[in-house]
Write a structure and sequence with these properties.
Shape: globular
Radius of gyration: 23 Å
Number of helices: 12
Helix content: 25-40%
Number of domains: 2
Oligomer: single chain
CATH class of the largest domain: Alpha Beta
Strand content: 15-25%
Number of strands: 20
């Protein structure tokens, strides 16, 4: 099966080599070294356009898109999000600091977190426009800060635990089930709303999230109904906000193609909210969607260089210069990926190859038993759908240094994050 649809939309095979945005991947690897992460601006923009078009088509009320910073956050991605009029979802003071450094104004910063510290909340008071409140104890901290703060209180949304999870590839990517650590039960949310009313806290929204990397919007519908019931019960007023989270998936492997479109997801959510509001005589809320993966995943490609080939019985290992330190998703979730050689990507896939990194863990694997052309030491490979939950979950295990990141757009390549150095590894030591 053709693997190019997994790659950014500007990807081509030219002179029997992979290019993105007209730029040869081999030359980029030579210039910036490997491992190397590439982000294609055209693919990011096309995904945003798909969300905006679907919302305009299927939802009659006001709507916005929030970029989920946990997918991948840097000053460059913040600048892009701000330019596209996206909100930036930040978890804690660290991501807030990146958002502010990237130029996001408070109105475009939304703060999440299941156990926000006082430092997180102080940063949110100073720099953010919205706090999604996870629990009753957090509300008490917000009340105390509100009494002492010279800043206006950000608007508050309650995070509802709907008790329904979506179908994902691993239990660790589900967040909406009854025993989840996230959010408040319906009864807790009622108590939280009463607390806000009593202490004059600016409650004007409801949020929930059920899981990440799902491909069927149907399980969202009961949670949307519950959220609208809560909104009706609370009487949030004429201008209120409703966010059924994000988590729409992406195809990581050719076996997952074709993946249902962004429009399928948005239509399912928008129609459920529209019909639910009509049946309850609720004014249409400002509808927020929080995609991260479905905006960024396909836009990213990871380049590696093969260092050694090992034959172990029927198994062939291609050992590369990156792995679980820049992409832990196989180790955490058993995630499946695909791959192409940078040179000769259309060659006959005559061998089953497993691709693993250099680190001292048996779980340091990215791909198992993928049909590939015969690889050799020194060759470059490209792993697509690398734009989300790779670098944001990376580590310095075994002294690994995080790779450089390059932005490709309009025929130019721009370094947006340099590769870490040995000096970087020592900066925190005293």
């Amino acid at each position: 099966m053709n693997r190019l649809p997994l790659f950014p939309i500007t990807t081509k095979i030219e002179n029997d080599c992979l290019t993105i945005d007209g730029q040869a991947l081999a030359q980029l690897a030579e210039q910036y070294g490997t491992p190397l992460y590439l982000y294609d601006g055209a693919t990011l923009n096309a995904a945003v356009d798909a969300y905006h078009h679907a919302l305009a088509t299927h939802y009659p009320g006001p709507a916005s898109v929030t970029y989920a910073g946990k997918a991948y956050l840097s000053m460059a991605i913040v600048r892009w999000a701000v330019a596209r009029n996206l909100l930036v979802d930040c978890t804690g003071a660290g991501e807030i600091a990146i958002a502010r450094a990237g130029g996001a104004p408070p109105a475009q910063i939304l703060v999440h977190g299941v156990n926000k510290s006082l430092a997180d909340l102080r940063s949110a008071f100073e720099h953010a426009g919205t706090i999604v409140v996870d629990n009753l104890d957090e509300l008490k901290k917000i009340k105390a800060l509100a009494a002492d703060s010279h800043n206006s209180i950000p608007q508050l949304w309650l995070r509802l635990l709907p008790g329904v999870a979506v179908s994902t590839h691993h239990a660790h990517t589900q967040t909406g089930q009854h025993d989840s650590k996230f959010g408040m039960t319906y009864e807790e949310a009622l108590t939280a709303a009463e607390f806000c009313k009593e202490h004059h806290l600016p409650l004007n929204g409801i949020h929930f999230h059920q899981g990440s990397n799902f491909r069927d919007p149907e399980p969202l519908l009961p949670a949307i109904e519950l959220g609208l019931d809560l909104a009706q019960r609370l009487g949030l007023g004429d201008e209120w906000h409703f966010c059924p989270g994000g988590g729409w998936g992406a195809a990581y492997h050719e076996d997952e193609l074709p993946h249902p479109s962004i429009e399928v997801y948005v239509r399912g959510v928008a129609e459920a909210v529209k019909e639910g509001c009509a049946s309850r005589k609720l004014r249409h809320p400002m509808l927020h969607l929080e995609p991260g993966r479905s905006l960024a995943a396909r836009a990213g490609v990871a380049l590696y260089r093969v260092g050694a080939i090992k034959k172990r019985g029927a198994k062939t290992w291609a050992l590369i210069d990156g792995g679980m330190t820049d992409n832990p998703r196989f180790a955490l979730y058993g995630a499946r990926y695909s791959c192409l050689p940078v040179s000769g990507p259309g060659g006959e896939r005559s061998e089953l190859v497993s691709i693993a990194g250099p680190y001292c863990e048996s779980g340091d694997v990215l791909i198992e038993d993928l049909p590939m052309p015969k690889l050799k030491a020194g060759e470059l490979i490209a792993i697509p759908v690398a734009g989300a939950y790779h670098l944001s979950m990376s580590s310095n295990y075994n002294g690994a240094r995080r790779p450089a990141v390059v932005w490709l757009e309009h025929g130019s390549a721009k370094l947006i994050q340099r590769a870490e150095t040995f000096e970087d590894l020592l900066k925190r030591d005293v």
